Structures are given as structure tokens and as C-alpha cells.
TrEMBL record:
InterPro entries: AraC-bd, AraC_XylS_family_regulators, Homeodomain-like_sf, HTH-like, HTH_AraC, RmlC-like_jellyroll
Region feature (Disordered): 135-170, 319-338
Domain of life per record: Bacteria
Pfam families noted in UniProt: AraC_binding (PF02311), HTH_18 (PF12833)
HTH araC/xylS-type domain: residues covered: 219-316
Stated name of the protein: AraC family transcriptional regulator
PANTHER family: HTH-TYPE TRANSCRIPTIONAL ACTIVATOR RHAS-RELATED, TRANSCRIPTIONAL REGULATORY PROTEIN
Keywords: DNA-binding, Transcription, Transcription regulation
Organism expressing this protein natively: Muribaculaceae bacterium Z82
Keyword Transcription regulation carried by entry: yes
Molecular-function annotations in GO: DNA-binding transcription factor activity; sequence-specific DNA binding
Amino acid sequence: MRKAHDIEEGRSEAARCTIAPVPCIGGEYRSYRGIAQPFPAHSHEHYVVGLVTQGARRLVWNDQPHLLEPGDLFVFNPGDVHGCQQQGSGLLAFESLTFSADFAEGIHLRGPRTRSADAVALFRAVIDNLNAAGETVEGSETRASGAVPAKTSDRKANVPASPETRRPASMEAVRKSALALLSFLAETDSPDADAAGTPAAAGSVLGPTATPILDDPAGRTFRHLAGNLANPSRLHQIAQRETLSDAALIRAYRRRFRITPMQHLASLRIERACKLLADGMEPAAVAAETGFADQAHLTREFKRREGLTPGSYRRQLVAAGECSKGDGTSPARKDGVS
């Protein structure tokens, strides 16, 4: 398989994305290769830590520009708004891990990027422990387009392991190494607050890391969107209820969440779609459940943000079967791991 530290240049490679559930951290392992597409501004309700192994990207993180290059570790907290586009001719490749907010128990990670050799080594240790645990195995790699998998003789990659191949003792090593990584990346002090008294990454509104949703136009708009994914009010209707113009509501929302209401709605819908697809729901039903016009609409928006089709995402996670169930999680702590 391709190791996390195989940092190289690449210019012509079919886009591929491989996903495996990692239940002991409440998240997923992902491997992307040959990626040229831009990713629009979006946010997640989980933590993301990943290593760029190929290509350069111009990243915008919470309205701040950054350059990601091979060897960079990128770090996103829940709610961090991020998007990126290709910089130069090299195609993007990276490996990443997601961690649930429950697993990390409210810590705030230093982001959005670091070249710390210690941080990279800790990230690699988690990947190595995953391989040792049998959480990922050698096998065919799924193309990001959701088309026919590549021949195993051409290329090897991680795919979800069957339950009998997983080694429980080694999964404890995965959990401990993940806690060590998060502990190393954790802020020692609370993040700076803005004028409104909310954390600098004020999009963190989901899970234990949540910023309290104030009873103001931005907060009420968020609650409405999150609670009505399938049939939200139109923006001008929400603005009228708040006695604001559309533009004023968008400005207020961006000040709070660093993303527009409609961009945030799309992110919330995709997050929900991921959960439903992982549970085995068919894409057409997911589209209806999450407010997309049809399956084609879901597919376009899903691929824009996730880099693969909903059908491919579902197939990979459903194929993992019981690998995605039955493991407990343990909270990360700022003062070390145990």
C-alpha cells in the first residue's frame, strides 16, 4: 500500500478515493490520490487531521489564506470553514483521519497546518497501527468517480477489513496513538475570542465543542436550517422574519460562522447524507431525506465537497459491515493520554 510518508510529485493519475471506518476513534480513514478538483467552502462536525503527500493547494481556512504543500499536516476543528483549489500542476494526494467530537471531548486543536516532524510522526503512527490492526488491508482501490475499481495488480490501497481480520489488541494501539496525536495538537489555552465572545473558529456549533447558539438572527437562522434540512424556508423569508434585508442577514451569519447560510445548509445536508449512506440508505432516498432535488443533485453536491460520489461512499462503508460497529471510544485529554 502507499504509505503516508511517500511524498512525491505527480501530474497524471486517475482520481481515486479510498475510505475505511475507524470506529474506535468515531471516524474514518481516507486516502485521496490524483485530485484536481477544487473543494468549495464547507465545514464538518468532526475533527480532520491529514497529511499532504503530493501536490500543492491554496487553502482558505476561516477566511485566512494558507498554502498546503507536501509534508504539511492539515488540522481542522469541528466547524472550521475550509476550501481549497489546486496550486500548480501537481495533482493532490493526501491521507486523513476524522475523529468524532465525542472522542476528542471538546479539545481545540492548533490549525490549520503544521510541518512539525513530531506531529507528522504521530500521524504516521496512527496509520501504521491501523495497518497492524487489520483495520485496512491490501486490495482494490475505488475510483473517486465511483466507477469500476482499479485492478489490484495495477495498484494497491486500503479498503475496509472484514471483522475477522481485525486485531482487537492492536485497535487499542490505534486508539492510544490517536489520543497521543490529538493531545500533541491540542491548544494549551482557549482559542482567542472575537468581539462577540465566541471562539475564533466560530463555526464550531455541533457536538461537545459547540459554541452556544445565541438567540440572535444568525443563531436562529442556523437552528432553522439545521432543523429543516429537507424543507427550509427561503433566505428572504428568514430575513423577513428577522426584519433584516437578505444582505444584512448574510453578513450577520458570516460574522458568526464564516460561511453563508446557503453554504452552511449544503454542508449540513452533506454531513447528514454521509451518516445515512453509511447506514446503508440508497442515494435516491438520501437525496429526498436531506432536501436535494433528486439523486443527481445530491451526487453533484456530494462529489464537490467529498471528492467521490455518494454511491461510492456508500459501497465502501457498507462493505465494511460490522467493522463500523461495536467499538467503544474514549475521550482525548489535553493533559496527556492514558
